[in-house]
Amino acid sequence: MKSSKFGSFALVLALSVVSCSKSGDVEPTYEGCATDEHKQTFDDYESTDRVKTSAQASPKWLQPIPGPAAEDFPSNTPVKFSWQPTASNPGSTQGNISCSGAGPTAFRGALRPQHETPVSGLVYDIKFSIGDHVSYRVITSRQTTSVPADIWADWAGQSIAVDLVSAQLLSNELSEGPYRSVSQLTFRVK
Q1: Which of 114, 119, 117 has the alpha carbon at shortest distance from 169?
Q2: Which of 97, 118, 141, 181 could cross-link to 32 by cystine, CB 3.0-4.6 Å?
């Protein structure tokens, strides 16, 4: 079988992309007005250590309340997680972004996904990790989320660390941040 230069290049490119991805990287759940463009913004800042921490600008956990010792939660009832934009700004549980739901559109007789419109406001990246492995990730414009019951149940007997990062966007471009929560949230599912 004869190999073309293009075929060899495509194979090298595909292998490069696979080798550059983080092991254990999970595809996030998108809630509210969050999109995959926001994931790329968070990932770019995380991978280059440009996420900041600020007592005035970082998001603040509300529930569960962070503390020095990990709290235990039953494996049969997922917990609701909530936060506010900063220590002095309570925000709104639905966040400060409104967006129209974009559904599939007809294009030449076939359904195609419609590109999401750019958003302006706060978007959050919440990563639930077991050790160094991100087990579940949510990118949302809301100030509340929960973990699906099946994932929560799978965490029985595990300690979970939760990383909360916020970013202020203007038409999907970063205008402030991103900022990591000052308080570390950890818990156990029993």
Answers
A1: 119
A2: 141
Q: What class, spelled out in words, does domain 22-97+108-189 have in CATH?
A: mainly beta
**CB contact set of 53 (below 8 Å; sequence gap of 6+):** 179, 180, 181, 182
Distance CA 33, CA 121 (A): 10
**Token pair 């996030």: residue:** 28
Q: What is the per-residue pLDDT across 11-33, written as a single tens digit (0 to 9) for each?
A: 333 333 333 334 347 899 999 99
Per-residue pLDDT tens over the stretch 81-110? 999 999 999 999 888 887 865 444 444 445
Domain residue extents for the chain: 22-97+108-189
pLDDT for 15 equals 38
pTM of the entire predicted model: 0.79
Task: Map residue 40 onto helix, strand or coil.
Answer: helix
Residue 31 DSSP one-character state: E
Distance CA 57, CA 141 (A): 16
Residue 176 pLDDT > 50: yes
Please calculate the CA angle 161-164-170 and round it to the nearest 5 degrees.
Answer: 160
